[in-house]
Amino acid sequence: MAEYVIVGGGIYGCAVAWELAKRGADVLLLEASQIASGASGGLGERGVRANGRDRRELPLMRLAYEIWPGLREEIGGHTGYRRLGHLLLIEREVDLAAAPAQVWLQNQQGIESHLLGAAELRELEPKLSDKVIGAIYCPKDGVADHSATTRSMAVAALVQGAAIREGARVAGLTRRGEQVFSLRAVIDGEAVDIPVGKQVILLSNAHVGDFVAEQLGLPLPICRMLPQVMTLRADIPPPMTRLIGHAHRTLAIKPLPDGRVMVSGGWRGRWDEALRRGVPIPEQVEGNRLEAVAVYPALADLPVDEATTDRAEMLCVDGIPIIDYLPGAANMLAGVGWSGHGWAIAPAVARLMAEWVLSGERPELLAPFRYGRFL
Ligand SMILES: Cc1cc2nc3c(=O)[nH]c(=O)nc-3n(C[C@H](O)[C@H](O)[C@H](O)COP(=O)(O)OP(=O)(O)OC[C@H]3O[C@@H](n4cnc5c(N)ncnc54)[C@H](O)[C@@H]3O)c2cc1C
User: Side-chain half-sphere of 354: how many Cα atoms within 13 Å?
Assistant: First the structure.
């Protein structure tokens, strides 16, 4: 019987498995499909960005800044982490007026941030449209290869002695009082009871809401979203060298190592019930492309290479995750509702979750994410 049973083999499940196993804990990770088959896998790269992030997550980003650069060496596998710097572009006077306060706040939280005027900005990014009048710059922000990092993390957990079972879909739980003492999983079409020695760590993202509602009768204030990402064909070298965001446009741009440009930032797909996955909406793809062209006119002639919306993520009503033991299951720690920005903070959150599981004490940095904030 494993002491700690983790549900979900995305970045969170794999990173918590690694953090627990390297501290000597006995860990079993159950993944319904394959490692990195959810939001932690798929097209392109993920931003490791503090710039413009919710204030309550900035202390986590400060910790994540410390972890990311050495992670490749620590886990002994590829992460693709690159500290490119992030520019939050500004086109409107109203956003420029608000920017010094945001720069001040981010610096107070230990996130190095600078307000750049038009001329300084052009020194960094000469191919920007003339319409852009300034930017908030965070030089310590960057990108990582999410699929590679998640798989490397799973291997690192295995090396530390964790067991990982792919093709094991958790479908139910059994409780004695408020203690979960077994999980019911479907493995190779058979229902199997998985005993829980000490705790469950529930990190199955898109599955968590329905599971908790069915098993604990507890509705969570989260809903599924299908973020859109696309790549443009690499006909010209990427006109940008940094990770790009925008103060008022729904836009994120990343220059990929293979020469393509990735465009995303918050556009969404629609759920196709027959396919059981998200599919892109052509107008949303075109809308996102036009936002990118508005700030980098050189992108106008690049056709869309690939557009996907098949990686579901859970959006929490107040835009930050729930990380807590839930009422009715005193030994089940859940993390869900990353709201489209859970990647960058994952190594920091996973470390803190593992410490919490082993010590029984909630780390101070995780206090803003308690379930009780809604009550
Ligand atoms: C398109 C897109 C772009 C994003 N861009 C960024 C970004 O630039 N920066 C950033 O910080 N964040 C970004 N995010 C958010 C970030 O990627 C996610 O918050 C993060 O990957 C979530 O990790 P996870 O481990 O919780 O979930 P997932 O990776 O979804 O892992 C959950 C796993 O649980 C498994 N599972 C599901 N049901 C069960 C079950 N019943 N039993 C067992 N296993 C089950 C799934 O198969 C899956 O592998 C983006 C997300 C998406 C989708």
Answer: 22
Query: What is the per-residue pLDDT across 229-285, written as a single tens digit (0 to 9) for each?
Result: 999 998 899 999 999 999 999 999 999 999 999 999 999 999 999 999 999 999 999
pLDDT for 179: 97
Give the chain's domain count: 2
What are the mean pLDDT values of the chain's consecutive 10-residue runs (375 residues total)? 97 98 98 98 98 98 98 98 98 98 98 98 97 98 98 98 98 97 96 98 98 97 98 94 98 96 97 94 98 97 96 98 98 98 98 98 98 96
Cα gap 19→345, rounded to integer Å: 15
The verdict on the CB of residue 277 being under 6 Å from ligand 1 is no
Beta-carbon count within 10 A of 119 CB: 8
Q: Which domain holds residue 179?
A: 2-45+147-223+316-374
Q: Are residues 362 and 353 in contact, defined by beta-carbon separation less than 8 angstroms?
A: no
- What is the pLDDT, as a whole number, of residue 297? 97
Residues 256 and 219 in one domain: no
Count the neighbouring beta carbons within 10 Å of the beta carbon of residue 87: 29
Q: Is residue 58 part of a domain?
A: no
Do 242 and 342 lie in one domain? The reply is no
* CA–centroid distance, residue 355 to ligand 1 (Å): 22
Ligand 1 geometric centre to CA of 39 (Å) = 3
Please, is 191 exposed, middle or buried when counting C-beta atoms within 10 Å of its C-beta (0-12, 13-18, 19+)?
exposed
Determine the pLDDT at residue 268: 97
Query: Quick one: pLDDT at residue 177?
Result: 95
- Residue with CA closest to ligand 1 atom 13: 341
Q: Is the CB of 87 under 6 A from ligand 1?
A: no
End-of-domain residue from the set 265, 281, 310: 310
- List Cβ neighbours of 176 (8 Å cut-off, separation of 6 or more): none
CATH of residue 120: 3.30.9.10
Q: Which of 365, 360, 368, 353 is nearest to 14 (CA)?
A: 353
Residues 356, 336, single domain; the answer is yes
Q: Measured in angstroms, how far is the CA atom of residue 11 from the centroid of ligand 1? A: 7
Is 67 part of a structural domain of the chain?
Answer: no
